[in-house]
Amino acid sequence: MFNNGIGINYNFNLKEFIYTENAFGPKTEKRKLDDIRKSLKNSSCTGPNVVYSIAMDIGLKEDRKDLIDRNLLYGACIYSNGTLGNEPIRSQGHIHSKSKSCGFSTGELYEIWYGKAIIFMQETAKDNPGRIYAVEANEGDIVFVPPSWAHYTVNANPKDYMVFGAWCIRDYGFDYDDVRSHNGLSYFPIVKGNNIEFVHNKKYEECEVIRKAPRKYTELSLDYKKSIYDQYRENRDRFRFIT
């Protein structure tokens, strides 16, 4: 199992995280199919009742005060297996709203703990979405979503679960207005055999979807031999770019 730096494990059947006595975290919040239907290509599709579960504010107990003082938050998600009609399990998509603490939309740093993911991101949720990337990530990979970009997360292997952790700002918020006015993001992920393809959402202008592996974020001074939580414990200032 990938070493996430916190010692947290997961119960796939319950879609809950298992915390050690040294760790803290909440019972997960469940996102149900009915919560995300309007962002799907087929809003009347069938699929798992609980699409994914979220635990915001997790970590080691000895770090809790420091995380609060830094306005830094670590969260994690468990994605179900299966499909939503002919789409893979995925989130509905959002933009990070402006944080009151810094006055800007902030970025998010993903780390895949289990399975395979696609982080789909587009520069804007206006009619012309601008640059579009579908970043295909495996266990241990790190993906950065830039501030103000619209994005959703996909379980890229419908036969298995997917789990990830992510750094974000503590006073985070989501802006759904433009996403919901377009019934989702600019392309819908569709399961075709063992692959995932992207079908254009006609409420947007058509743009190229660039599919790629995560790049090395040298400008963020990341250490790819350690989990992003271990990197925080090694250098408490390392993730100030998030906040």
Model description:
It is globular, with a radius of gyration of 17 Å. The chain has helices at 33-36, 64-70, 177-181, 228-234, and strands at residues 9-11, 16-18, 23-24, 29-32, 50-56, 59-60, 72-79, 83-84, 87-88, 95-96, 108-114, 116-122, 132-138, 142-145, 150-155, 162-169, 174-175, 187-192, 195-200, 209-212. It contains four helices and 20 strands. It has 243 residues and is mainly beta. The protein has one domain: Sandwich (Jelly Rolls), CATH 2.60.120.10. A six-stranded antiparallel sheet has the order 4-5-7-16-11-14. It is 9% helix and 38% strand. The longest helix is centred in the N-terminal third of the chain and has 7 residues, at 64-70.
Brief descriptors of the model:
single chain, Jelly Rolls, 4 helices, 243 residues, 9% helix, mainly beta, six-stranded antiparallel beta sheet
**What structural category characterises the helix and strand content?**
mainly beta
Strand order of the largest sheet: 4-5-7-16-11-14
Number of strands: 20
Label the CATH architecture. Answer: Sandwich
How many DSSP H or I helices? Answer: 4
pLDDT < 50 runs, ≥5 residues: none
User: How much is the radius of gyration in Å?
Assistant: 17 Å
Note the quaternary state here: single chain
Q: What percent of residues are in strands?
A: 35-45%
Mean pLDDT: 96
Count of separate structural domains: 1
Shape: globular
CATH topology: Jelly Rolls
Name of the level-1 CATH class: Mainly Beta
Distance between the termini: 29 Å
- Percent range of helical residues: under 10%
